[in-house]
Amino acid sequence: MKSFLVDSNIFIEAIKGNAEAEDILTRLFHSGERIFINDVIFSEVLYHFIRIKVGPYWNAKKKPEMDSQSIEEFESVVLPLLAIPDFLEINYDVATIALRISKKYGLLPNDSLILATAEYYGIDALVSLDRDFEKACKEENVVLVSSAQEL
């Protein structure tokens, strides 16, 4: 059985109606394989969902009632999708791996934490539409899956 860590951009793009992201999630969820997310992925999906519904950061900051409405919608629409994968925790070891990855490949902190999670837990593949992962995944021996055909 293979294991997959699904990056936040797959969920975010599926929410936006990206057919490739929707196809990836459909295939993964019906595959019988092990599927995972972590707290960074959860946070990014929630944040971007709020931004899609409310608008730029300052709109969200200044209109908490709109945030509450968005979060209610998130709970009914998106949270069930995020309940399908298993949840992997970020611990100190993951954080130190992330620092090494960030320094070596120039990845931003959240991307480094995502790749470090895959590496630490021995996940077979990272599923992401983000090409920033290409070099790091190759050198860290984590397969990068960027299309439904690659599954």
Give a description of the structure.
The protein has 151 residues and is of the alpha/beta class. The chain has a single domain (3-150), classed as 5'-nuclease (Rossmann fold, 3-Layer(aba) Sandwich), CATH 3.40.50.1010. 61% of the residues lie in helices and 12% in strands. It contains nine helices and five strands. Helix 7 (92-105) crosses helix 8 (109-121). The chain is globular. It starts with a strand and ends in a 6-residue tail after the last strand. The model has no long low-confidence stretch (mean pLDDT 94).
Give a quick summary of the entry.
This protein is of the alpha/beta class and 151 residues long. It has one domain (3-150): Rossmann fold. The protein has helices at 8-15, 19-29, 39-54, 57-62, 64-77, 79-82, 92-105, 109-121, 134-139; strands spanning 3-6, 34-38, 86-88, 125-127, 143-145.
